[in-house]
Write a structure and sequence with these properties.
mainly alpha, Urease accessory protein UreF, disordered N terminus, globular
Length: 233
């Protein structure tokens, strides 16, 4: 008789961490993917975003020079803060102060706190009795949860960046409208831009947060008085 072949099994913890990652960036996770467009709804109405090419240009600019790239920097800073509650609160306050409009502020806060509430099923998160009534914008909430949930920083940044891009593409599919295949083409074309934005974050700090996407910032402001709206922002 020959000896049985023994196949080593993966560590259960590693598998569980991956499942958490899938859950936390899933479109079904309650972070408002169906309610928030970051001003994209106005951009579609104004004709600035009307097809795959203009949508790619819009999101590419956000990753390289605007709010999407800033969020990745903030997320990494929150992940690096680890269990330092005071530092996390400072980062949260900084991220709130960086919002360029009322709707952007509400979007970040409401999504962040919804994310924390849902993630509390898995890990310990700040409660409503957190000191000084801290508000938790989404990238800070994500960095905090991914660190406590055992997700490596680089994976956290890239995964959350993908979730943000996918949410914008999903909004555009409904607003332009685009077909599902065009939505997938957009995601495929944006992969290099997203990877580059994530790769820049290790060398950047909160001092590097800033933006030059004035069209996107104005779109978020104009959306506040847009007559017909499907999205909250």
């Amino acid at each position: 008789m020959t000896a049985p072949i023994v196949i080593p099994m993966a560590e259960p913890r590693a598998g569980q961490d991956f499942l958490r990652l899938l859950s936390w960036v899933s479109p079904a996770f309650p972070t408002g993917g169906y309610a928030y467009s970051s001003g994209l709804e106005w951009a579609v109405e104004a004709g600035d975003v009307r097809d795959v090419a203009t949508l790619c240009t819009w999101i590419d600019a956000l990753l390289a020079h605007g709010s999407a790239g800033n969020d990745l920097i903030v997320l990494r800073a929150a992940w690096d803060a680890g269990g330092d509650a005071a530092q996390l609160r400072d980062i949260a306050a900084f991220a709130c102060a960086c919002a360029t409009s009322r709707e952007r502020h509400e979007e970040a806060i409401l999504q962040g706190e919804a994310f924390l509430k849902a993630a509390s099923v898995w890990v310990e998160v700040p409660g409503r009795d957190d000191p000084a009534g801290t508000r938790w914008p989404l990238p800070v909430a994500q960095g905090l949860v991914f660190r406590r949930g055992g997700i490596p920083c680089d994976q956290a940044v890239l995964s959350c960046g993908y979730a943000a891009v996918a949410a914008l593409v999903s909004a555009a599919v409904r607003l332009v409208p685009l077909g599902q295949t065009d939505g997938l083409r957009t995601l495929a074309r944006l992969e290099p831009a997203l990877a580059a934005a994530a790769a820049r974050t290790p060398s950047r700090t909160l001092d590097d947060v800033g933006g030059a996407c004035f069209g996107a910032d104005l779109a978020a402001m104009y959306h506040e008085t847009q007559t017909t709206r499907l999205f909250r922002t």
